[in-house]
Design goal:
This protein is 78% helix and 0% strand. The protein is mainly alpha-helical. It has one domain. The longest helix has 27 residues. It is globular, with a radius of gyration of 19 Å.
């Protein structure tokens, strides 16, 4: 077996760290359990991220405004809309169903990267996407597939799919922006756009968090910040399709937290799915995907 290059290794580690952070963010969202409106969660998360990122930019003496402002704005807008859709789907659908729908985004990302960035998907990355999708389905949703699919509201499913599509497009923007922008600048524009979009909803739906809800909201902000920084670094080092296929591993982390924090049961489907996801991650990082990286370097977004 060929060795994994240092850049791929760094990118893979960053993406694994991102998956861990986002899975812990989901734990915090689950603990809030619908007591706080989606727009308010987005706003508080954005404020925390904005403050942290601005301090880091100031410390590093980096201008927060970047070079490609139009694409930075688009990345922030797409990411914000995706976040609204994802949180709304989690609130309206069973968590397992919402998770499966959200994790269709690596497929969207692979297709979008091929169409917009001219990145070669490659046989191994394509295989990793397929195996990973089968794996996450087994981890979070085999019972739902066989029993009550008709009970899922079409509107909520559509919102979840829209969130997955918007997530993939946001990651395509990140991949392109990473050629010229510092990772902190890319992260900075996400909350910068999220805050003005979220504020109008607060006047209509806002509630005052009480007690431990403040802790969960702080956790959402901190873990999302860590996840955004790590995934931005990972997307700088790896082609978009390859990078997002590695993110399937977030489902494994979520299954683990389900056992630790919510006493959820792990059955044989989960074990088989975990093995498939691990296998998909190894395929994504393998040396055979070098061609996809070369194709990216030789083709730019028009």
């Amino acid at each position: 077996m060929e060795k994994i290059g240092p850049e791929k290794l760094k990118g893979g580690v960053a993406l694994l760290a991102s998956a861990m952070a986002f899975s812990l963010m989901s734990v915090c969202v689950k603990h809030i359990n619908g007591r706080i409106p989606v727009a308010e969660i987005v706003l508080i998360r954005a404020v925390i991220s904005l403050v942290i990122t601005r301090l880091l930019l100031k410390r590093a003496k980096i201008s927060p405004w970047g070079k490609n402002k139009k694409l930075l704005f688009l990345r922030g807008l797409l990411g914000t809309c995706a976040l609204f859709c994802v949180f709304e789907a989690i609130e309206k659908l069973p968590l397992a169903a919402a998770t499966v729908i959200q994790y269709t985004y690596p497929t969207f990302t692979s297709i979008a990267a091929w169409l917009l960035l001219k990145e070669g998907i490659g046989h191994r990355v394509g295989l990793a996407v397929l195996i990973g999708w089968i794996g996450i389905t087994m981890v979070v949703q085999p019972g739902w597939i066989s029993s009550n699919p008709a009970l899922l509201p079409a509107t909520s499913v559509s919102i979840g799919l829209a969130g997955a599509l918007l997530t993939s497009l946001a990651y395509i923007c990140v991949r392109k922006l990473s050629e010229t922008e510092h990772s902190l600048v890319i992260v900075y524009y996400f909350p910068l756009i999220s805050i003005p979009i979220s504020i109008p909803f607060i006047f209509e739906q806002g509630v005052v968090p009480i007690g431990i809800d403040w802790l969960w909201l702080l956790g959402i902000g901190i873990f999302t910040q860590l996840g955004q920084v790590c995934i931005t670094r990972g997307l700088k080092l790896l082609p978009a399709a390859q990078a997002t296929s590695i993110n399937y591993v977030q489902v494994l982390f979520s299954a683990l937290w389900g056992v630790v924090f919510f006493s959820e049961y792990i059955d044989n489907w989960t074990i088989i799915g975990a093995i498939l996801i691990f296998f998909a991650t190894l395929i994504s990082l393998s040396k055979g995907n070098k061609e996809a990286s070369i194709n990216y370097k030789n083709n730019k977004l028009i």
